[in-house]
Prior knowledge:
This is Glu/Leu/Phe/Val dehydrogenase. Pfam families: ELFV_dehydrog, ELFV_dehydrog_N. Its EC number is 1.4.1.-. It comes from Nocardioides taihuensis. This protein has 361 residues and is α/β, with parallel strands linked by helices. 47% of the residues lie in helices and 16% in strands. It has 2 domains: 5-69 and 79-143, 3-Layer(aba) Sandwich (Rossmann fold), CATH 3.40.50; 150-295 and 302-341, NAD(P)-binding Rossmann-like Domain (Rossmann fold, 3-Layer(aba) Sandwich). Helix 2 packs across helix 16. The model has no long low-confidence stretch (mean pLDDT 94).
Amino acid sequence: MPPHDADVLDLASGHEQVVFCNDAATGLRAIVAIHSTALGPALGGTRFYPYASTADAVVDVLNLSRGMSYKAALAGLDLGGGKAVIIGDPATLKSEALLRAYGRFVQSLGGRYFTACDVGTFSEDMDDVARECDFVTGRTVAHGGAGDSSVLTAFGVFQGMRAAAERVWGEPTVAGRTVGIAGVGKVGRHLARHLVEDGATVVVTDVSAAAVARVREELPDVREVASADELVASGIDVYAPCALGGALTDEVVETLTATVVCGAANNQLAHPGVEKALEERGILYAPDYCVNAGGLIQVADELEGFSFERAQQRASGIFETTRKVFELAAAESVPPAVAADRLAERRMQEVGRLRGIWLPS
């Protein structure tokens, strides 16, 4: 069901700035949403996706940018939250000219928003954006960047999963457990490797047969099932949604066999209230923006002059952050998703700049 105008306006009411970017010559239709700069300039990736409507794109960019504010705050970064979406099929629409046009729009924001990779965009694309823009991270190694941010995203999710395993089973490991991954593209593939190395049995599914084939070629013991519906109903201990958002619907929660949910996808809860349904079923949910912050940590480190070792050390802190979320949830008798929000909001309020919004010096 398409969103109503009132719903979109309600979502946007908490945002500092929403900018529509159009360039007829290249076919660019983009939206940049800056949710908060209370902690510093907004940082978030650019998603290139064939949305069914502009309204759908607006809802997605508003939700994603809000999530980035909370993710940066919980990760301890002095950054705010933003996100951008480019409307269209990247396989047919993406071009150097379009990306450079997009870079000029980002440049016009004067540094209030830094962009990076997301679904449908890659480090090579950021190199093209950077030809017209100073506020780009997630670039290729050849251009002084960190390269693929999915490496540390997966590492961070694995750290969060270890914390969840400790909470449920007493030990920070998934050895001997069965983990189901829905989506084995950029992040899910790296996550599968961490899990196999830790001693887990891994079951995967993806709409792309090529993505599954690549994982199984690298990790022959990984099993495949036909669909996400089949995966959640199978005998898994941990469910890792690693595709697009909204994976945790009422129907999924009802059929889910896992005891832990911990994955890389953004905005996993299909609607408010799902977090309570998970808790009522005795399923421990590791909040997505808490555990998937490794990629943000990686591209943020690039702004200082990238060091993989330093970024990985910072991303390893996701284990302790996830622990704190679970401890607060228990202490205040709330679901972990609520506890994570409270921790992030406290930091934004306590550390946030008095002037409210960030402006270039």
